[in-house]
Amino acid sequence: MLNRQGRPTAPGLASVSAHETFTGNKALLQEEPLLFEIGRYDVTGVDLDEPQGFTPRLGGLERSDGIGLPGLSEPETMRHFVRLSQKNYGIDTGLFPLGSCTMKHNPRLNERMARLPGFADVHPLQPQSTVQGALELMNELGRWLTELTGMPAVALSPKAGAHGELCGMMAIKAAIEAKGEGATRRTVLVPDSAHGTNPATAALIQFDVKPVPVREDGTVDPEAVRALAGPDTAAIMLTNPNTCGLFEKDVAKIAEIIHAAGGYFYCDGANYNAIVGKARPGDLGVDAMHINLHKTFSTPHGGGGPGSGPVVLSERLAAFAPVPFVRTDAAGFALVEDEEGTEAFGRITAFHGQTGMYVRALSYMLSHGADGCRQASEDAVLNANYVRARLADLMSLPFGNRPCMHEVLFDDAWLKDTGVSTLDFAKAMIDEGYHPMTVYFPLVVHGAMLVEPTESESRASLDLFIATLRDLAMAAKRGDAARFTGAPYLAPRRRLDETRAARSPVLRWTPPAPVQEAAE
Amino acid sequence: MAETRYTKDHEYIRLDGDTAVVGITDYAQGQLGDVVFVELPAIGKKVGKGDEAAVVESVKAASEVYAPVSGEVVAVNSALEGSPGTVNEDPLGSGWFVKMKLADPSEIEGLMTEEQYKTFVASMS
Amino acid sequence: MRYLPLSDADRKDMLAVIGASSIDDLFADIPSDKLMKGLPDLPRRKGELEVERIMSRMAGKNVAASSVPFFVGAGAYKHHVPATVDHLIQRSEFLTSYTPYQPEIAQGTLQYLFEFQTQVAALTGMEVANASMYDGSTACGEAVLMAHRVTRRRKAVLSGGLHPHYADVVRTLSKMAGDEVVTMAPDVTATEDLLAAVDGSVSCVVVQTPDVFGHLRDLRKLSEKCREAGALLIAVFTEVVSLGLVTPPGAMGADIVVGEGQSIGNALNFGGPYVGLFAAKQKYVRQMPGRLCGETVDADGARGFVLTLSTREQHIRRDKATSNICTNSGLCALAFTIHMTLLGQEGLGRLGRINHANAVKLADMLSSVRGVEVLNSAFFNEFTLRLSRPAAAVVEELAAKGVMAGVPVSRLLPKAGLDDLLIVANTEVNTDDDRAALVEALREVL
């Protein structure tokens, strides 16, 4: 019998282009108001019983205002934040070649381990006899980090990379002061290619920053360091592999020059992920180096933290590491929390650091093993070089077509006269479904584009990425500037007005002003 | 016509008797992009030649404005605090930063003339 | 290796495309005598099952807070976190995203940061808040540096009720930055005279409420004195739930308010990661450290959010930055915002009253134990006991009995001569049975 209820199965008229919707939604992509616009002050999504029969003992300090925090029921909360999440790009969405940030796969095993009650539900000030497993974890993470880097000691407590830098530089300052040279050794050499955190850290603790120019090939010339080093030199802060994606080939010589001048070698370990299992900072003359667990050892970036930045230290600095640290004795593990009787320079955070991140990083290391860690570095470097080799004919490499480490740096020379800027190019990548690479960093090349594919990408994924970039590059050179200058066209938002945001900052929601009754 | 001189850091100084108006050049505002904030010194502040006299911020960059010559700050353009975009719109006019009383008017001789500055800017691109 | 997609055949082909004969060709810049020949002396790769076994064994050696009557606080608190929170923060688009440098594809992160900032400002009673700091202690250190920038003075006064770890963080930072710190003696009874310590040379006074001993402090006279002296009042809290019930520092005249946000949305995690809250008066916004999210519009006029005022930050100002900080505590801030959204002011107020009621109940029960004196008259969910014996030993003995009694003050202040003091916290997770177990155990050992 003829079924008259059948629905059309060919696209038909649905192939005409989209119209504006009543809701502003685009099917799966939903517009979402601020929670302050949809929440109610008398709603809560948590069932709690009002306590009965007690007399407050607040000393007359009861809160009397309405706070101003609306609530949502549980289903509304779920929907609000799920919709927000759908406006974000993550590693799990697609290739995320953000140079210097190392957006590699985040194994969910690590998340599961961090949520074991024996780690997640343990208080930092419980009796030490009840946290021996947590102290063992810290000790074991320390063993992996010191063994991999060839350094004798590690301070685990820094909360992120920049905090690790601060910790390492404080150890250096303490060591200098212990030698009675605090008044004279005040200069820190920082190459122009350094992360902004380096000079900021040095300046914060009263060192004078002296820039070191980067030579033609993108690395630091030991002779330039020699010319600047002297009895006033406290340290050099050198990123290796550096921010141009290159290994500082004269690193050993630079270390020698700094040491001969009586200074210390601080290595920014942001790019350590390129050389794990290939070279040990301890063999390169490094005195202190922070390790971003969220880069090299894959703890999630979480939209900008939490990070974790343990610092490995040389023999000369080990004693100055801050409290707390783990000591082993016959009775087990003990946490040294009091500076008294140590040379520790002090304390940089409450409690013991980012234990939840230690769990994830150790879980990652155990999964990879020494062999997998090395393989990960090799694959990261291989992937970056593959991208370089296949784009070198279209895009420009400021330091020549030579091997790079885990990331490849292009400049904007190849975009000259196309009317397309580095920023435009990046925004057009968004329309193609990619997160852009790092742009305009490092500052030493013009219109920088720093591509770090990481070891997490398959060859097929890289091939598609390369093909996309080639297509975009040819479009730019062809004069199809509109594809770039108006981009992104297809993201949840078009380009945002940052000038307006900065000229008259609106940093919080405020209730709309009551509608004025029309005068007269 | 008051004489205007220029520095390599793209400040201008326009003499008016023994005081002078200081701001940033049209080239400088173009390089900075949209100015979003200006930090001005206290009136009465004494600055040496090359000292930081103000800070100008765009969305992506913050730059120090240096005193082209030594002297004392006698007035600041506080209108910029509310409308920093004036620096972009009229850098040489209503987008000025500070007025200074010069300590040594001869210092101005070491600065570039308009012609020299034009050549200097041309050499940069 | 399960996380690495390349096969050996891929690697070989790719090396050929690159024109390298071996992978070590790509590492040619590493001096050959520095290139590792063998592998580090560490175990080889392991499957999920084996890793899980190793980690679980370690975790099993710790006593989890929820497995015993648990009264440990002093800066980190055991609260119940709704299941929704942990589910949502594990969504890929939150968990595996980065700092929102490309706002067009990071509106999810930016919008929750804007919501977070608004929530923190409302809670603290301040005009603006940033997008979070590492934790409460580092936020406290940054607040002192900020006060120095605002006042152009370099001397901080720390209350004797400030958490000793926070005070240590400030002292370490100040020592290194060449700034002066005056630390008041441990103030067990909240009776110190801070007013006398404020004069025209002081940049800021740092005072915690509820303080580390659990006392609530009225900051109004102090804020007045600070204003007269041109100093800033920095108010600190370690228990953010208290703000649901207690007058916020903003309403008492604080200039900067910083604290620990762990209690809302975040697990104990043996000390981290946590989330630092940082709020201030609007006029100081350009001196604030950390990231700020602001509202704007896109090219089509639609509302959107961006990171803003970033010229304060290290990647632009370099050695002139307000702080060297680069990351915030994004995911922990998200957990905070989700939990706070579920609570609303209605739920938060009730949560605060439950915490307080439980603590009042416990204080009354403990007052009847011989050898125990409750030192606090006003408190929120935490107070200090004077015991007839050193508290550290009592805590160990009670732990052996399966009761986590609290934090001995000697653990935080080893040489202060306060060995008989014990800090006890009581939240919504504690039951009548828990309280009875603590009282009973104390009776047995005292």
Summarize this, please?
With 520 residues, chain A is of the alpha/beta class. Helix content of chain A is 33%, strand content 9%.
Cα end-to-end separation of chain B: 30 Å
Mean pLDDT of chain B: 90
Strand order of the largest sheet of chain B: 1-2-3-9-8-5
Task: Give me the CATH fold name of chain B.
Answer: OB fold (Dihydrolipoamide Acetyltransferase, E2P)
Strand order of the largest sheet of chain A: 1-7-6-5-4-2-3
Biggest interface between chains: A-C, 205 and 211 residues
The unreliable regions of chain B are none
Q: What percent of the residues of chain A sit in helical stretches (DSSP H or I)?
A: 25-40%
Assembly context of the chains: heterotrimer
Give structural attributes.
heterotrimer, A: 520 residues, alpha/beta, Aspartate Aminotransferase, domain 1, 2 domains, B: OB fold (Dihydrolipoamide Acetyltransferase, E2P)
Describe this structure in words.
The complex is a heterotrimer of chains A (about 525), B (about 120) and C (about 450). With about 525 residues, chain A is α/β, with parallel strands linked by helices. Chain A contains 16 helices and twelve strands. In chain A, strand 8 (about 325-330) and strand 9 (about 330-335) form a beta hairpin. In chain A, helix 3 runs antiparallel to helix 12 and helix 5 runs parallel beside helix 12 (about 355-390). The mean pLDDT of chain A is about 95. With about 120 residues, chain B is of the alpha+beta class. Chain B has helices at about 25-30, 80, 85-90, 115-125; strands at about 5, 10-15, 20-25, 35-40, 45, 50-60, 60-65, 70-75, 100. Chain B is globular and about 35 Å long. Chain C is globular, with a radius of gyration of 25 Å. Chain C has two domains: about 65-80 and about 345-445, Aspartate Aminotransferase, domain 1 (Alpha-Beta Complex), CATH 3.90.1150.10; about 85-340, Type I PLP-dependent aspartate aminotransferase-like (Major domain) (Aspartate Aminotransferase, domain 2). Chain C has helices spanning about 10-20, 50-60, 85-90, 90-95, 105-125, 135-150, 165-175, 220-230, 315, 330-365, 390-400, 410, 430-445, and strands spanning about 130, 155-160, 180-185, 205-210, 230-235, 255-260, 275-280, 295, 305, 370-375, 380-385, 405-410, 420-425. At the A-C interface, helix 2, helix 3, helix 4, helix 5 and helix 6 of A face helix 1, helix 2, helix 3, helix 4 and helix 5 of C.
